[in-house]
Amino acid sequence: MTDVADTAGISVETLRKIETGRIPTPAFFTVAALCGALNISLDSLADSTSGSVRPHSEADVS
Predict the structure, then answer these.
(1) Rounded to two decimals, what is the model's pTM?
(2) Cα distance between residue 24 and residue 31, in whole Å
């Protein structure tokens, strides 16, 4: 965990919070840095999560 955090340029505590859900929506640049540290392309990350996020519709707005 320390190596990944160091390589991504974030603190171990921030990484721990992301992993445990205490930071449910990390900043894009944090996600990009983690992808770089883990040798994962942003495209492959987007492809792997494309079905897990429900887009907002007008019906969601109240």
Answers:
(1) 0.75
(2) 12
CA 51 to chain centre: 15
C-alpha dihedral sign at 12, 13, 15, 16: positive
The residues, ordered by sequence, that sit 6+ positions from 16 with a Cβ below 8 Å of its Cβ are: 1
Cβ–Cβ under 8 Å, residues 34 and 19: no
- 9-47, pLDDT tens digit by residue? 999 999 999 999 999 999 999 999 999 999 999 999 999
3/12 Cα distance (integer angstroms): 9
